Each structure stands twice: as structure tokens, then as C-alpha cells.
Amino acid sequence: MPFEATSRIQVMNHYGPRQTGGTVGVERTADSRNVVSFELTGQSLVDGFLPPFVLPKGAKITAAYVTVDEAFTGVTSVVLGEGNDEATNGITLTAANLALGTRDVTSSLAGEWAATAAAATTKAARVGIVVNGTPDPLVGRASVTIDYIYKRRDDTEWPVDEGTVPTYPPQL
Amino acid sequence: MAQNRANSMAFIETEQYSSFILRNLHDGLLPGTFYRNVTDFGSGSVLNIKTVGSVTIQDVAEDVPVDYTPIESGNIQMVIDNYMGDAWYVTDELKEDGAQVEALMSARSMESTRAIQEVWETRFLARAASGVPSGSPNEINGFAHLLIGSGPNNTISLADFSAMRLAFDKANVPAGGRVAIVDPVTAATIEQMVTLTSDITGWPQQILQNGFARDHRYVANIYGWSVITSNRLPRGSFSDGTTTVADGVANIFMSVADDNTKPIMAAWRRMPSIETERNKDRRRQEFVTTTRFGFGIQRVDTLGMVVTDATAV
């Protein structure tokens, strides 16, 4: 795998040919409205690695959209969500969601991420990815944007919930 | 009657004592540059060391916002986990009655210092071996960092040096500063690869004449490895998950190019120090040496192990 934590320094290292994709981060947005944006490519789905973006506790997700510029091959579904519990609090993008074009996938949000949920997120969670199927690394490019509102005046709950962080091979 | 041995036995000192003292032989010690000397660990019991990981790159288009992405960060630790020492005394009676007692005390002191150094080095090598756990090939980027000697009866072969070089290359390890610490048995194995023939060329002739290791070093680098021999490498049962060597020796391969690549870190909390006092009640001089230090595995991608049979050549 291009991304490995086998050096046992508790972070991923990258080996071999490198491609774009697998990014996650907030776009430069204004006010209390934020947009967390992902770029998914066939290679990034094979890699299965996302940088350590943390969705804060108390974020209220309002909408999700996906734009597919190049179709994927071999993908059954892609789940983005709370690390180590992506399917419970996250969004599942099916193969149909990942067809060419732009679409509103707000209804695919689930759990604490659901736009219809009354409450907001209950923990500061690192966002993880689960890929089902056997993606072709050479094809596929999509952008996923998730809108959320975050405006808290409590600055004490930023630390990430350790249960959402990936487990790497321990230091020896 | 003249004097002879038969009638002058009182003047024959049958047992004599030489002033020359025969001492133990000691193996060479490794250079002190094979570990990162953690100088910022002067106090406390746990040192946390920050690490940083990798990032991802995105496609960008005109007038479309980019994603601001973080970089991974982590933490490793090291602790002071070794505390050892030595204590001895000399009674007044021995000083009064004995001969060359000062030389004896000097030898006792030197042996103590030497033994501490050897224990330190033995534990250093054992700690290095613990960074390549037995039972799996310890693959990094698809290439094993634990190899079993591929020669007959699990002896070393030149291909093992090549394979470990490849594993390091695949793990992004710098080409410079690669050292292998191997058992002298491996040098014997390589020496015996040279066979005596009538048209032997100069290079194997030198090996036949002088051996393949001299002063604890191989006479030539092998595939970029500077090779040092040591008798203090860990012995025991080792496996790569497929093959087990019951009486094996763990030959250690590592990069010591700089502090970032060195796989082992070490810190002295208390350098070996000698304290002495007079015990008047027991009429003796007492000496106590203690030391505290710690080892840690910084990283394992710059660490490898080739297990060879401990005795087969």
C-alpha cells in the first residue's frame, strides 16, 4: 500500500508513485457556515488514507453534494464519516451516487451527520473513509462537499476523540 | 660433601609467583555513534517525541476553492528503563597480607567498567533486535526487514545483503550510513565461499590469506553495507513466519546516517559513576558503581535483521 504506518512512528508514510486525491479539509468559508470538501480519486480510494481532518463537536451538518468529473470503476460504495464508525455517523455514497454529474446527496447523510437530525455531532471526530469494492486506481475523480454550521463559544472541547483516530502499529 | 638439592631442600622455593598478571581478553566495542543520543531527556521519566506524517495533493481548477488540509502528527516515547551497577570491597587484611593487591584492585575496577560497557552494548543490540519482532517478515512497502539466512543451513549469503539493501531502498532509507553488525560466523561463511584453485585471482587470494574480517570489520563493504562483527548479538529462536532458526543469531542492519534515520535512541540519566567509602566497622574499603540509562526504538523502517544459524558456517 502506498500509505503505511509500518515505520511505527504513529503516522502514515508514503511509498512509491504518488497521485492526487484523498484530500479533506475546510474550504475558505465565511461566517459560521463551513464546507468540508473531499477529493476522491481512484488511487485515493485504493490508498484509503485521509489526512487528519477533525469535525468539531457541536457541528450541525446541513447538506451534502457530490460532483463526479470522471466515473469510477469497481467501486461498490464509499463511506465518509466519523472515524472507526463511518457507517453510523457519516455519508454512504453508492455507485449510483458516484455516477458522472453533480447531485444532492443530503439524504444519504446518517446518524449525527444527518441533515434531518435534531442534534449536532457529539464528539470531535477525525473523519475516516471506508471503501467497498475493488476500485480501479487509474480512473475516477469526484468532489464531495458537506455543509455544516459551527458556532460555539466553548473552546475546551477541541481535542479529538481518540476512539475516532486510526490505530497504527505500536511503537516497539 | 658439596651442597646439592638433596641436602639443601630448605633453599629450594618450589613455587614462584610471576609479577605478570594474565587478564581476560575482551571483544571490541561498537562505536558510540550507532544510536541517537537523546540529549533533551535530562529529567522526567518519559520523553515524548513528536512525529509528522504525510499529506495528500489535490487537483485544482480555475476559480474553484481549494481544500485546506492538515498533516498527520503523532507521538513516540522513550523511558529510562535500565538501572544496573557493581559493588565490591577490599579488606584491610588482604591489603596487609597480599602481594600486588593494588594491581588486583586496579584489575577489578577495569573489569567492572568493561563489564558495564559490554552489558550496555548487549542490551543495545537486544533492543535493536526487538524492533524487528520474530514471527513475521516485518514487511515495509512490501519488502521484508526480517530475513532468514538463505545459505545452506540458514547461513549468510551475499544475496541476504542484497535483499536487505533492496528492503532499505524500498523503505526510502538514505543510501549512506548503512551498517550491518554481524556475528563472526558470517565472516567465516563468506571466507569459505572462496575455494582454492590453481588460477585463483588476487581478490580471493587476499581472502584466503587474511580472512574476510579484520579488527571486527569486513575487509570490504558488501552492497553498500559497512559490516562490523560482534559477539554480543542476541541469540535464540527467530522466525520470519515461515522458517524458524532454533539456535539463531540476530544480525542487525541499520542506517546511522543521521539522528533522524537512526533506529535506536538512547539516553544516559546517570553515567557510570564510582563511589567509595571506608567501612571502619568491618575494616574495608567499599566501591559502588551505578548507572541509569534507557533505550528506545525511534523507527523501524531503517532497521533490519538477518537471522543466521549461530554455529553453522
- 3D shape of chain B: flat
Oligomer: heterodimer
Structural class of chain A: mainly beta
- Count of the domains of chain B: 2
CATH topology label of the largest domain in chain B: capsid protein of prophage fold
Broad structural category of chain B: alpha+beta
- Using the 3D structure, state the CATH architecture of the largest domain in chain B: 2-Layer Sandwich
What is the average of the pLDDT values of chain A?
95
| DSSP helical segment count of chain A | 1
Radius of gyration of chain B: 27 Å
Major pleated sheet of chain B: 6 strands, mixed
Shape of chain A: globular
Helix coverage percent of chain B:
10-25%
How many whole angstroms does the radius of gyration of chain A measure?
Answer: 16 Å
SSE sequence of chain A, one letter per element: EEEEHEEEEEEEE
Percentage of residues in DSSP E strands of chain B: 25-35%
How would the blueprint of this fold be written?
The complex is a heterodimer of chains A (172) and B (313).
Chain A: E1 3-4, E2 13-14, E3 23-26, E4 33-41, H1 42-47, E5 54-55, E6 60-70, E7 75-82, E8 90-94, E9 101-104, E10 109-110, E11 125-133, E12 141-149
Antiparallel strand pairs in A: 1-2, 3-4, 4-12, 5-11, 6-9, 6-12, 7-8, 7-11, 8-10
Chain B: E1 36-37, E2 46-52, E3 73-79, E4 82-91, H1 92-97, H2 101-130, E5 139-140, E6 143-144, E7 146-148, H3 158-170, E8 178-182, H4 184-191, H5 202-210, E9 213-214, E10 217-218, E11 226-229, E12 235-239, E13 244-255, E14 264-279, E15 284-297, E16 303-309
Parallel strand pairs in B: 1-14, 7-16, 8-11
Antiparallel strand pairs in B: 2-3, 4-15, 5-6, 8-13, 9-10, 12-13, 13-16, 14-15
